[in-house]
Automatic annotation (TrEMBL):
The lineage of its organism: Eukaryota, Metazoa, Ecdysozoa, Arthropoda, Hexapoda. This is GH16 domain-containing protein. GO terms for molecular function: hydrolase activity, hydrolyzing O-glycosyl compounds. PANTHER family: GLYCOSIDE HYDROLASE FAMILY 16 PROTEIN, GLYCOSYL HYDROLASE-RELATED. Residues 1-198 form the GH16 domain. InterPro entries: Beta-glucanase-like (IPR000757), ConA-like_dom_sf (IPR013320), Glycosyl_Hydrlase_16 (IPR050546).
Amino acid sequence: MPRYNFYSGWPASGEIDIMESRGNKELISSIGINIGQQLISSTLNWGPNKDYNRYEYTSFHKTNENGFNSNFHNYQLEWSPEEIIFYVDGEEIGKVSPSDGGFWELGELNRTGLNNPWTGCSKMAPFDQEFYIIINLAVGGIKWFPDDATNAGGKPWNNKSPRAMSDFWEGLEQWLPTWKLETDDTHLQIDHVRVWAF
């Protein structure tokens, strides 16, 4: 997340997810794909407001049939004044190199009629500020877990519910037993984090 909301609130000031995963072992999409432990994403979130978050232009995915939980992996972000590149285990999975029109142009936001919060800034805005590191094992959420996916323990909330977060918590007895808290199977384990400048 940005150190400061320099360009206003989320997502105008951006968000960089170096690695994001749903930890569920058997979370299966409506078309039969494991979108739990076998899938990771690296994503930039950005846009003038939450209704125009253009993350889909800058979200990259990698699958692993053995599950990313089966071993340690290297998730890397290379960030320069010209581009942002995501890697998993040394393999490039996505690159974002905006033109001189920046992310506003990349997201085709001119036709929205909204004000550009990055006018007069570098082409990398909002990713021209300081950010905190995000390595994310998602637990819930109203977009990240599709309502039509299947999962051991079921899904005790609906994404359209105005009480989605409360429904999730009230369904504790439904999903908590699937976490196997007595083992390491449900823990996000990080060996190390390194940051360096060239």
